[in-house]
Amino acid sequence: MKPGESADHQIQVDSDLAHRSLAGGFVYLGFVAALWAATDYAATHGSLLLAIGGMSLVCACARFLLGYHFTPLHARSARVWRSAFFLAVNLNILVWGLFLAATFLLFGYDNWKTMLLLICMAGTAPIALASLSPSLSVLRSFLCFLTVPMISANLYAGGARGYTMALVFSWYLFFAWVHAGMIHRQYMQHIREKFALDAARKSAESASRAKSAFLANMSHELRTPMNAILGMTHLALSGPLDAQQREYLAAVKSSGETLLQLLNGLLDFSRIEAEKVVLECIPFSVRDLVNDTLQSFAIQIQEKGLALRVGVDHDVPLWMYGDPLRLRQVLINVVGNAVKFTSVGKIEFRVSRLDQFAGTVTLHFTVRDTGIGIPTAKQRSIFEAFEQGDASTTREYGGTGLGLAISSKLVELMSGRMWVESRPGEGSLFHWTARFANPTSEPAAHATLPQHASTTARAQMPLRILIAEDHEISRRLLKTIVEMRGHSATAVSNGNEVLREIEQHQFDVVLMDIHMPEMDGLEATAAIRRNESISHVPIIALTAESAPGLRERYLAAGITEYLAKPVKPELLFALIEGMGRQPERGKTQHPPPA
Ligand code: ADP
Predict the structure, then answer these.
(1) Tell me: the pLDDT tens digits for 556-580?
(2) Nearest C-alpha to atom 25 of ligand 1 is from which residue?
(3) Three-state SS for 38?
(4) How far is the CA of 147 from the centre of ligand 1 (A)?
């Protein structure tokens, strides 16, 4: 072992040694059997053969036990284990080296017994070179014990034959000695590389964990101020302003939204890369999804004077199960690009059924545009992160080069793929396929959010809302937003205050920040769910956290629904107004947290 190499290296080396030579000792019992059966050794020197057999059996069992019980024995004392192993292996071979020499002295080279034994022993050397290579000292002593008795016996016998054979055995020992060193060095190199690889893997894993934690924190830290910027801009824009102020604020809002988009894109990409995105499997209508999504591009398309054609083939099922939000994300990105990169002509969107079997349906989506097109050399790389058609793209059209990378990975998660056909100057045709579960019948009416809740219109039925948020600006912002909508709001800054308020006053819904000092949102939720008289109140968690399984965790903790920060007012209103006024206390019980 080199200085600086860890005890783990030594354990690995000893373990390899033990396991490689686990059954090695029993080979010699085979030699005894061969001598017994194929020669008259038993008849002439039966007790010698029996003694050799007995010694071999003891050594073989010792080697086996030292290998089989390696972990506990080695853990007790590595030094004792090593000495015992050294002793067992070398005693084993010393016995056979002496036996070979004795056989030669007894019967000479012309005898079949000597020849048979010589062949057997010659065969064990290459096997030992491989199996004992983890320990150079064991290996070299093995070679010495195997050959030195025979060299000595030949020198003792003397004569041309004896000296020649002593020389041959010495020559053989020399080469085996040198090769033992080489094989041992190769083995050690392999072990060092294995450990270096393991260390690199562990450090990469820990770097990836650190990256995920960093992203989760950044997400929280960045979204909270973004929440305030976008929310305050929204409020300012809904008040009286002169044209220039409105223009400035509109620019702040659009830049804020772009920044948020970039932030979300980065988070999304790193989560997909870390294989942390799990797709939902809920019923949805692809026709509704396509209509809603394309609707959001209507103004842009109109302003650019483009024509839009949409076709959903009649054999595309009305309902299917999948992740509509992620599919919408892909749609928005590809159609958004088509609109962005096309200044004249038309955009065609089409969905057709590719195949349908075993309860699944595979759909083929295409988006054709008559825009700037993509150079052939770039048609593959645009699906990689941060890749754009050419260097002037960002300058002219903006964007980050993340959209298609995320979309193609999402499509892969949907068991599909994405590709493009394009000619520069003529336009592009983006294709993607995706597989969905296909139910046999239309699902029962499922709860959907009202799609458009105007943020400026007043609510039909005013609600009593308790807002719990420790960040002062966010708290004031939320309160103003819900009050402008016509609801009444009480704002508090931690879980203890939530409990105090909710026990004294009646509320229809609680908007609960999760990370708060003193008592956080989840603890407060658990306390509310434990109190029978208030356990029915719906609690909407507001969080900047984004992690896989978050929703499930919140639902299990008693949260009714959650909204990601920055909170979109239209989504918030759609959600709370969809819940309506709560029945009087004690009438409906919310299930206690799991
Ligand atoms: P972004 O649009 O944010 O730059 P994307 O990953 O969505 O990132 O697209 C990567 C690049 O692919 C774009 O920058 C653009 O060069 C090219 N591209 C994508 N869609 C089209 C299209 N419909 N027409 C022309 N080029 C496109």
Answers:
(1) 889 988 877 777 777 788 778 777 5
(2) 373
(3) helix
(4) 74
Digit-coded pLDDT (tens) for 59-90 = 999 999 999 999 999 999 999 999 999 999 99
* Residue nearest to ligand 1 atom 11, measured at CA: 388
**Considering the domain 464-579 in this protein, what is its CATH number?**
3.40.50.2300
Quick check: CB of 463 below 6 Å from ligand 1?
A: no
- Tokens read off for 532: 């029978």
The tokens for 549 are 């399984």
Residue 1 confidence (pLDDT) above 60:
no
Gyration radius of the chain over CA positions: 39
**What is the token pair recorded at 421?**
């056909």
CATH 3.30.565.10 holds for 286-437: yes
Instruction: For ligand 1, say whether the CB of 404 is within 6 Å of any of its atoms.
Output: yes
Whether 407 is in the pocket of ligand 1, judged by its Cβ within 6 Å, is no
| pTM, 2 dp | 0.47
- Judge whether 285 and 325 are in contact, CB under 8 Å: no
**Could you give the CA distance from residue 153 to residue 325 in angstroms, rounded to a whole number?**
86
Instruction: Provide the token pair at 149.
Output: 């008795």
State in Å: Cα 325 to ligand 1 middle.
21
The pair of structure tokens assigned to 243 is: 């044209």
In 416-532, at which residue ranges do the beta strands (DSSP E only) sit?
A: 418-423, 427-437, 464-468, 488-492, 509-513
* Ligand 1 contact, 73 CB (< 6 A): no
439 lines ligand 1 (CB under 6 A): no
In angstroms, what CA-CA distances link 360 with 316, 319, 408, 433, 436?
12, 12, 20, 13, 6
**Distance from the alpha carbon of residue 379 to the mean position of ligand 1, in angstroms:** 10
Q: How many CB atoms lie within 10 A of CB 197?
A: 10
Average pLDDT over residues 393-408: 75
H or E element in which residue 159 lies: helix 159-237
Encoded tokens for 398 = 């903006």
